[in-house]
Amino acid sequence: MRSYLNDCQKIEQVMGEVYRKLAGVKTYSEKLRLIFERMARDEDDHARQLGMAKGVPEDVFFEGGRFDPEKLDELLRRAHQLLRMAEDPPRSESLMLETAKDMEMEFIKIHLQNAVQFRDAAMAELFRDMAREDEKHFETLDSYYETRKKTSRYPLH
Ligand SMILES: [Fe+2]
Ligand SMILES: [Fe+2]
Questions:
Q1: How far is ligand 2, taken at its centre, from the CA of residue 37, in Å?
Q2: In which domain, by residue range, is 92 found?
Q3: How far is the CA of 26 from the centre of ligand 1 (A)?
Q4: What's the predicted TM-score (pTM) here?
Q5: Ligand 2 centre from 59 Cα, in Å?
Q6: What is the pLDDT of residues 60-81, one digit of tens each?
Q7: Could you tell me which of 90, 87, 67 has the C-alpha nearest to residue 17?
């Protein structure tokens, strides 16, 4: 189980890196870069909290068995893929926004799925909190994207 939490933490770390990279892309608007910067801090925070959770003895909080390590592997792979995209950012702001939105939606789902597997209330709450924050991430990206599409004088690249 510890390795499951370890992978959860790795994903949050990679997403923190992704958003920090995107916050540094000069061609993105100031507003979007600030959004990415805040999100990077949130993901770092998620990673930190999962890091602390790893120290709790296993039998305290798990009913066991209903976690989905394969889904986690897939998400970790996709997070790394996104990191490579962020390292060499395509001109396309819309592609990055769409990909990030998809990822956040996946995180909301898996955090909520994980939350109901815990016997320990604090652990369940930790995962529900992360789901809530990722919901905010999703909404922030979505509303920025929609506004951009409406107000941009030029087609969004
Ligand atoms: Fe997160
Ligand atoms: Fe997030």
A1: 12
A2: 2-55+65-149
A3: 24
A4: 0.91
A5: 28
A6: 566 665 788 899 999 999 999 9
A7: 87
